[in-house]
Each structure stands twice: as C-alpha cells, then as structure tokens.
Design goal:
This protein is α/β, with parallel strands linked by helices and 391 residues long. It has 3 domains: 2-105, no CATH class; 109-174, no CATH class; 191-384, Rossmann fold, CATH 3.40.50.300. Helix content is 40%, strand content 18%. The chain contains 12 helices and 13 strands. The protein has helices spanning 11-22, 79-105, 116-127, 132-148, 158-174, 203-215, 236-245, 255-264, 287-295, 311-320, 341-350, 372-381; strands at residues 2-8, 27-33, 44-50, 59-63, 70-73, 191-196, 222-226, 248-251, 270-274, 299-306, 328-332, 354-357, 368-369. The protein has an 8-stranded mixed sheet, sandwiched between helices. Strand 7 (222-226), helix 7 and strand 8 form a beta-alpha-beta unit. The longest helix is centred in the N-terminal third of the chain and has 27 residues, at 79-105. The chain is elongated and about 75 Å long. The two termini are 38 Å apart. The structure holds guanosine-5'-triphosphate and magnesium ion (MG).
C-alpha cells in the first residue's frame, strides 16, 4: 500500500493531483488543516492511499503537487516493538479509511466548483468526527444563508464570501445544540442532581468536583447520596471524599430509602446522587432506578459519558440511557481525545443540553461549565490542525 500526503489550497486540488499521480484508485484517507510549520506548503494536508501499489515497509513520502517527492524514512522501531508498532500503524490506517469511507458516502458533489469554502468546511467538520450527514447539512445551510443575503459565491468577492461564510457556518453549528450548565430543575431547593452513565465514565469523580465547586466553594449546604450498592466497597470512594470535605453522606439500598432521605434533607441546598455504572446490558435490569428518575420531577439527571468513547458507541449509550430520562449530557475525559465532533453530534441528535466538561482527574480543578463558545472552539479546533487539551 502506498500512502502519500499532498499539501494544497483545497481538498479538491489535492485529490486531482493524487489521482493524476497515483491513478484513479487513489483513496482519500484523511484531511486536515496543515500544521503551522508546513502551512507554507498549502492550507490542507490531504492523505491518500493506493492499495494496489507496493512500497518498502515503513517508508512514505510527503510532497507538494508538481514537486519531486522527498522521501522520508520513518524511524525504525527496535525489533521487539516492531510488531506492536506495525499493528498500531495498521489500526491508524484502518481508522483513517473508515473516516474516508463515511465521508465519501455523502460526497457533496453538488459543491464541486461552487466555492472551496464549502468543501473546506465539510472536511474540517468531518475531520473532527462530526457525522458526515450533519456536516453536510450544516455546510449546505450556511451556504443557503448566504444566498438569502446576496452573498453567494459568484455574487460576492471571494474575501467577502469567505468571511460571511465562516460566520454563517458558526451560526449554523451553534443553532444545532444548547449549553446549559445549571444544576437542578429550578430555583427551589434542594436542587437535586443525579449522575448516571456507563461504568468508569467518571460519575463519582465529577460528582465530587461539582460538590466542591458549586456547593462548598459557595458555602451551600451539600449532601452526597450513593445508591451504588451493587459492588463491594463501591460507596467507599465517595464516603472518603465526603469525610475529607466534611459534608453529609449516606448510602441507600433502595429507591424508596433514597426518596425518604431526600425528604428528610429538604434543608440542604444541593443534593448529589451517585449511581452505579450501568453497562449496556445492565440497563434493562435497572427498572426501579429508571422509574424513580424518570418520574421525579425534581431530579436533574446528567448522563455522564467519556468524550474519548467511539462516536457510534456514544450514540448507542445516549439511546440506551434514555430509559433514565437524563436532561443533560455531561462529558468527561476530554483530555483523552483530540476529536470533539462526537460531543456535538450527540448534543445535536438528542436535543439535550451540554452541562459540564471534565478534562482531567484533578479534583476539583478539572471541571468547566459548558458554553456555546467552548463547544464551537472544540469542534473547530481540529481545523487548526491541533489536537488539544480542553483544560
Ligand atoms: N483522564 C481523565 N480521567 C478521568 C476523568 N474523569 C474521571 N477520570 C478517571 O476515570 C476513572 C473512573 O472515574 P470514576 O469517577 O470512579 O468513574 P465512575 O463513573 O464513578 O465509575 P463506576 O462507579 O465504576 O461506574 C478514575 O480513575 C478517574 O480519575 C477525566 O475527565 N479525565
Ligand atoms: Mg462511581
């Protein structure tokens, strides 16, 4: 297999150059804004693969269309590591191909020759793992907005069109999700927040971060409750934090005792409920918790999901957890990924507001309130060619 990067002003230009040089089977594997240090070679780095052409292993070449290819050698791994390195590289290639296939399935051929802004925006969104369909809708809607303003390509100068298009693109993206970093379902106290989600998604850690930042720091009386009784010593983690923080803590075995505890603690301002991690297959067995959360009009349930989870699995989780009627989506582990499109996909698809983001293990620092600006920044950060920490 031959893999090559092309640097050019638009993805289409790179495609034309690749097809000319590698033949009609050249397949687009990945595209991104070129990193700053090589931006002088072209706005975009577009990677193509040609499955039919064999090259020496661990060797690839980078070149600019029309220039002589400058081969560079990938550093050889020590023999012991070579197999795992090759497997990792193969996985990366397959991942790239998966993206390319998804992208070409919705190939926006109607934009060919319209304006490079359209295909550039589409490439940036899909590179951030915004779903191909959603990316296409957003780009098309941004273009339609400009048509309405008389700024369509051809009628406006490329510069005016470019700036107006970027603005329309941001507005279209922003119109598809909401951010709402509130705790509780109204001004009445106690404000009751339950965190639910798959095992290990960061519920307990995030609950403590929330309790410190929005309870203790503001001198609000806080109570921590746990109904995580399924695993031995499951509640111990939260019990230790409650002791360190000096806040009230109870472990409840049933939803009726949970209801009773809430009743008895109506003098608190904030009550946080920690729940057991529910794997996909366990959800059907969580009927009593599901019924409790779905029917209590005073509990604000946040579905806690790791941003590092694969996009398709995230969608599956959001759908499966609907049985608990979460009102917010809360994403953790933003520090463990560089592609934030899936966060946006789920917010757009479910219509549920994004509440908070966690980007690290530190308690209480690694927590931030979700805002529209932050989400736009995350979604479009990939277009800058960077993978970044959300801290
Ligand atoms: N890198 C990173 N790790 C995190 C983040 N949030 C939580 N973790 C870590 O993820 C692991 C699991 O966190 P928990 O808070 O115990 O997760 P949980 O959802 O309560 O887990 P269960 O109760 O077992 O379902 C711990 O090691 C946390 O420190 C985050 O934002 N970034
Ligand atoms: Mg937990």
């Amino acid at each position: 297999m031959k893999i090559k990067s092309y640097y050019s002003r638009t993805v289409e230009d790179a495609m034309a150059a690749a097809r000319q040089e590698m033949g009609p089977d050249a397949m687009l594997v990945n595209s991104r804004k070129a990193p700053l240090e090589v931006r002088h070679l072209g706005e975009y780095e577009v990677v193509f693969a040609n499955v039919g052409v064999a090259v020496a292993p661990a060797e690839a070449s980078l070149n600019l269309p029309g220039e002589r290819a400058e081969p560079f050698t990938v550093p050889q791994a020590p023999p012991g590591n070579r197999l795992s390195t090759e497997v990792a590289e193969l996985k990366k290639e397959l991942e790239g191909m998966r993206h390319a296939i998804t992208r070409t399935a919705y190939a926006p051929t109607q934009w060919t020759g319209v304006s490079p802004d359209f295909s550039d925006a589409y490439a940036a969104l899909t590179a951030a793992e915004v779903s191909a369909e959603l990316a296409r809708e957003i780009v098309q809607a941004a273009g339609d907005r400009l048509d309405g303003q008389g700024l369509a390509p051809g009628r406006a100068t490329p510069k005016t069109h470019g700036a107006a298009f970027q603005r329309a693109l941001m507005e279209e993206t922003a119109s598809r999700f909401t951010a709402d970093a509130t705790l509780g379902r109204g001004p009445a106290t106690p404000r009751i927040v339950a965190l639910v989600g798959p095992p290990g998604s960061g519920k307990t850690t995030t609950l403590v971060k929330l309790a410190v930042n929005y309870g203790l720091a503001a001198r609000r009386p806080v109570l921590l409750l746990s109904i995580d009784t399924q695993r031995v010593a499951a509640a111990d983690q939260l019990r230790s934090y409650a002791a360190i923080l000096g806040v009230g803590f109870q472990v409840l075995e049933t939803v009726s005792s949970l209801a009773q505890s809430i009743e008895e603690n109506h003098g608190k301002e904030l009550i946080f409920i920690d729940t057991p991690g529910l794997a996909y297959g366990d959800l059907q067995d969580s009927e009593s918790l599901a019924h409790f959360l779905a029917t209590r009009g005073d509990i604000d349930t946040h579905l806690v999901l790791p941003a590092s989870m694969k996009a398709a699995d995230l969608s599956r989780m959001v759908d499966a957890f609907e049985i608990l009627r979460p009102r917010h989506l809360l994403f953790t582990k933003l520090d463990e990924t560089g592609s934030y499109g899936p966060i946006f996909n789920e917010a757009a698809r479910s219509g549920k507001p994004l509440s908070f983001f966690a980007a690290g293990q530190r308690i209480p620092e690694d927590l931030e309130a979700a805002t529209s600006e932050r989400v736009l920044d995350l979604v479009f950060s990939y277009a800058g060619g960077r993978t970044r920490s959300a801290a």
